[in-house]
Amino acid sequence: MEQLLKWYVGASVPSFIRSDYYDDVQQSVELERLHYYLMAGYVFDISDGLKFKPALLARGVNGAPLSLDVSANFLIQEKFVIGAGYRWEDSVSVLAGFQLSKNFFVGYSYDYTTTDLNKYNDGSHEILLRFQLSPKSNQIKSPRFF
Questions:
Q1: Which residues have a Cβ under 8 Å from the Cβ of 100 and sit 6 or more positions away?
Q2: How confident is the model at residue 119 (pLDDT cuts 50, 70, 90)?
Q3: Which has more pLDDT, 29 or 14?
Q4: Confidence class of residue 136 from pLDDT cuts 50, 70 and 90?
Q5: Based on C-alpha coordinates, what's the Rg of the chain?
Q6: pLDDT value, residue 1
Q7: Sign of torsion, CA 62 146 55 113?
Q8: What is the 3-state secondary structure (H, E, C) of the chain?
Q9: N-term to C-term CA, the chain
């Protein structure tokens, strides 16, 4: 019997080994600032064919305001994904995707800036193509809905 994990929690600090960069023009040393990430999500089984996944992502870097993303996605019949997201005081997004076959997924998302930068752009469009090479196993695993 296949057992699926319904939640995830994570933390990361990419490039935590610091590097100094020398700027030849200004003759100064630039330090990389550490970026901190915290994330969490849970999948609720609404019915046999409907799952709901709220998620949270917080990003912090010294000298910049905290960035917080919240999202909510629905998985319908293990084939179709639809959802929305909000980046605190910055943008809103919508997404949709379809599992074309056992190994191939295609999706689309649109992100609209809610700050004054929206005067200069009409948002961004993204297309997602995912191909899974490895066969599925019968071990405990995390569903691709994450």
A1: 106
A2: confident
A3: 14
A4: low
A5: 19
A6: 43
A7: positive
A8: CCCECCEEEEEECCCCCCCEEEECCCCEEEECCCEEEEEEEECEEEECCEEEEEEEEEEEECCCCCEEEEEEEEEECCCEEEEEEEECCCEEEEEEEEECCCCEEEEEEEEEECCHHHHCCCCEEEEEEEECCCCCCCCCECCCCC
A9: 20
Q: In the numeric block, which tokens belong to residue 3?
A: 């057992």
Q: What is the pLDDT of residues 93-111, one digit of tens each?
A: 999 999 999 899 999 999 9
4: amino acid identity, one letter = L
User: Pairing between strand 7-12 and 91-99?
Assistant: unpaired
